[in-house]
Design a protein that fits this description.
Blueprint: E1 5-8, E2 15-18, E3 26-28, E4 35-37, H1 50-71, E5 76-78, E6 84-86, E7 93-95, E8 102-104, E9 109-110, E10 113-117, E11 119-120, H2 132-145, H3 148-159, H4 166-189, H5 198-220, H6 228-247
Helix pairs in contact: 2-4, 4-5, 4-6, 5-6
Bound molecules: zinc ion (3 copies).
One zinc ion (ZN) binds near residues 81 and 83.
Organism: Panagrellus redivivus
Protein name: IBR domain-containing protein
Amino acid sequence: MNGTKLIECPHCRSFATIREKPQYNSVDCWNCSMCFCLGCSNRPHFPLTCEQFAIWMEKFEHQRYLELSRTDPNSVFMCQCGNILHHSNKTWKVSCRACGTKYNWKLHSKFDDERIKCTNFADEYTPNYIAAEYSDICLPVYEMRFDANFFYDLKQHLKSSSVLNSGLLISNFKLALHLIELGFAWLYLTKAQKPDEWTTLKTLLSQLQSLVDSITTAVRNGLPVVNANQKAAELKKLVGIIMNELSNVHI
Ligand SMILES: [Zn+2]
Ligand SMILES: [Zn+2]
Ligand SMILES: [Zn+2]
């Protein structure tokens, strides 16, 4: 990239100029502080390319709805336009975001014409969009990343334990969740080609996942994090190694 470039934040629409291509191709908005990818305006998705991220997110969304419909079959339906509708059964009036059709969620039919039904999204025979081996890891991590209550609990929890630098632990923990979600997405998308680093990365990401798991389990059960400072140091080290490995991957 030569010279300066004008960019627009996809969240607050404010403009800024940048001089250099940022590392990982993502920027923080100076105004609303949201992070986004310069290539596709989505949330940052290192190590995936914009194309890989688009492919992954489509499958991932479908898999998410599939899991939701497995837990509660009456919560996910398809609009007549093909858009996916997801609501709890507490709601009874549902509008499709894509085409505006209004449905009576109790009857799963159109408001002014009961003959028009929304159709089932999945049944017990619908196969997975993403192999369970990957989605079982990526889905819960994704939910956790956007769960403000969990991070509130984590902060409170670390306050009461003897962690030397809880701010650093939290920022590495967040980075770890990002790397687990999108690192396993990368393993999934490249499993046919298996680049040289694939097996090493799978081992490292699995180690990271069990480290994150041990911290999460303690927080959820209200128990102290055992060897918290040692875990904080391990987390920092492992995140660094994985970032470095992923930066050297060319696929
Ligand atoms: Zn902004
Ligand atoms: Zn992108
Ligand atoms: Zn629709």
